[in-house]
Amino acid sequence: MTQLPKDLKFTLVTRTIGTDRIVSELILTFTHDVAIDWLLPGIPSKAKPVELPVIVIYTFKGDKIDNERLYWDHASLLAQVGLLGAGGLPIATASVRRLRELSARS
Predict the structure, then answer these.
(1) CA 103, CA 98: separation in Å to the nearest integer?
(2) What does the pLDDT look like over 76-103, one tens digit per residue?
(3) How many CB atoms sit inside 10 A of residue 25's CB?
(4) Per-10-residue mean pLDDT, the chain, length 106
(5) CATH of range 9-105; options 2.160.10.10, 3.40.50.2300, 3.40.50.300, 3.10.450.50
(6) pLDDT at 94
């Protein structure tokens, strides 16, 4: 069984290319309609929509990828699938809206 939702989508907001690294700022959207153990280990499908800001950093040695790092707001993810109350927390829905505004201006 696949662990990728059928509607999984990455929307590029910005990309910065250096001599030995690439940094991409993305918005990840999907419906949590399958188990995704690499992102939500042990959490069964909640059939909830999710929008997350994600940063991906690739570093290179020569012409080969040396390292890949991904960063996201896990509290926002947990709140969006109903596992964390958002009461007073700065949950990322505002961040995603702001990223969409920035993306639209580019």
Answers:
(1) 9
(2) 888 888 888 867 766 655 677 777 777 7
(3) 17
(4) 84 94 95 91 90 94 95 87 77 69 73
(5) 3.10.450.50
(6) 60
In SS3 terms, the chain reads as CCCCCCCCEEEEEEEEECCCEEEEEEEEEEECCCCCCCCCCCCCCCCCEEEEEEEEEEEEECCEEEEEEEEECHHHHHHHCCCCCCCCCCCCHHHHHHHHHHHHHC
What's the rounded Cα separation, in Å, for the pair 65 and 105?
31
pTM higher than 0.85: no
Q: Tell me, what's the pLDDT at 101?
A: 79
Rg from Cα positions in the chain: 15
Measured over the CA atoms of residue 31, residue 34, residue 40 and residue 43, the dihedral's sign is positive
